[in-house]
Amino acid sequence: MEHAKYSSQQQQQQSSNQVETATSSENGQKTLHWLQSSLAEMKGEILDLNRSVNVSRQLQQQQETAGQLQLTRSDVAALQAQVADDAAHGQQINQSIQQVRDDVQRLDHHQQINTAQLERLENNMADLRLELQLSHKMLVNQQPAEEVVVLKTKKNQRRHARSVELEDDEEVNQLTTPHKVRHHRRELKHQVHTLRKMVRTLASEQHDLQKQMILLSQLRTTAESNVHKMETELKAVLKRLDSQSAKCNADDVAQINAQNKKLAESVDRLSLKVSGVDQVQSSTLQLFEAMERLEERYDDSISELQREVSKLEYNDGQLSSTVHTLREDQSEQNQLVKSLRTTATLLQEQVQADQIRSALLLAKLTNNTLAMMNQTHGQQLQSWRLAQLEQSIQSAQSIESLRHSLANLEHEYNNLAHNLPHDCRQVSSTGVNFILPRESNQVIKVYCDQETSGGGWTVIQRRSDGKEDFNRNWAAYKSGFGSVLGEFWLGNDNLHRLTKENATMLRVDLWDIYGQYWWAEYDSFLVADENEGYAVQFHGYTGNASDAMASYHQSMKFSTRDNDQDLSNTNCADSYQGGWWYSHCQHVNINGKYALGLTWYDSLENEWIALAKVEMKVRDKRIFNQASTTTTSTSTTSLH
């Protein structure tokens, strides 16, 4: 009988194991099918994006060709302007040549005037010589009157030829009187002296005029040679400009024709494509709507999408290894469940046997008690009543004392809680402490850091070895989990209590898998309450790690595997196996599965930082509003 019962139990156990194995394999196949379909959708979306990028490239090429045409037109306009400038410069040179010619004509005119003046001066000199001869002969009075008459006749003839008045002849005729000879002699000497001065002055002026004539002739020759050179250079410049403009215009026209030909071919191809697009307008509209949705979903550009795809492929490999590990763990768990079921069956049989023996013993005890009570019914009844009465009195007294003790204990607990520090800035040493946040009656066990960047930090999260499971539900992340001495999450309610006054700083200390240290600090850190989904705010970044928190997770609500509040179409918390303030999905993954890898996106280097250890910590910035010196203290005695 027992053997049949045991065999039936084994059959049931085997059938249940088979069902569980089939269920687990079916779940694994569904998971793999879902991953394959997701990858296929991603590849299709990438192909659509590549098509849209090709269209954008064609449009960009058209714009570049139009820009090149515009540049060519501007070059042609510049060449035309240069030719116009050269023509204007040639006109200026012609004007300069004409001005030089006018100057030469003026110099010729001045030379003619100077020549006439020289002729007049020569005539005057001849007249003066005749007058001097006449005066000298009259003074000497040696020549006869006939010679005097001849000289007078010559003088009168020269004066008549020059249309000069004959007033001097009368004066000369009047000089015959002896008493006027001396006076006339003095006047003649004075005139001779004056005439000599005039002759010397005229001679010097004539010499200067001759020099000027020589200089003018030299200037004329130089000007004519310069004009000839300028005309030659102008002709050469015009010829060179004509050849250059013709060559440039020919090259530009050839380039423009080639570009126009390419544009015509591109326009023809685009016309064919446009005709095809017109035939499938409805599908094109759907494609643009899909592109808009894709832009909304992947608004951080194609490079980020490729990074996400590479990360998904990496996660796919990790998931495959994890699935293999889970299958091995599942087989071990199935064996363990089998042994536990066997043990439970044996224990149930032992419990049933013990229950039977207990029932028999209880029946025997009841019979014995009834027998004894029948023997001493009266005394036992009275004694029993007295005992019950005394017991009632004692129990009442003990309950009253317990109530009093409980009240005292509550009072002492409240006094102790109110005397606790509000945060770690009121604690002097590093280690585990109890704090009571402001406007809260919930005491929190925390780890205080007094050594990093001035101290006063309350550690709210730590990842170091992967021993703690962070793939928890909403309730676990709400209240917190783990040990403050190891890996833990302080709890979203506690984060809200610590940051609700909007006077809290956040610091994230990071150590990558190569041992390099990174850090990021935010001057303002605020976590809303549960009604607002524990939405987060980051402001005022400093550090040597990139601003991955505020740039991607700003104002996001907290998500867990059972409460998806991110912006992605997938459940990011379930995919990355950890609760976080996800967006599309993350640039910071420090609450995910440790074996898959903790990551922080470095936007400056455009790469992911693989992390081995992470600590998140907060402090009140009203006291630590400036960086203080780092203090070193020993570990404190902690309250447990």
From TrEMBL:
Transmembrane segments: none
Keyword Coiled coil (UniProt): yes
Keyword annotations of the record: Coiled coil
Coiled-coil portions: 111-138, 253-315
Pfam families, A to Z: Fibrinogen_C (PF00147)
Listed InterPro entries: Fibrinogen-like_C, Fibrinogen_a/b/g_C_1, Fibrinogen_a/b/g_C_dom, Fibrinogen_C-term_domain
Comp. bias regions, Low complexity: 7-18
NCBIfam families to which the protein is assigned, alphabetical: GGGWT_bact
Name under which the protein is recorded: EOG090X02LG
Organism field: Simocephalus serrulatus
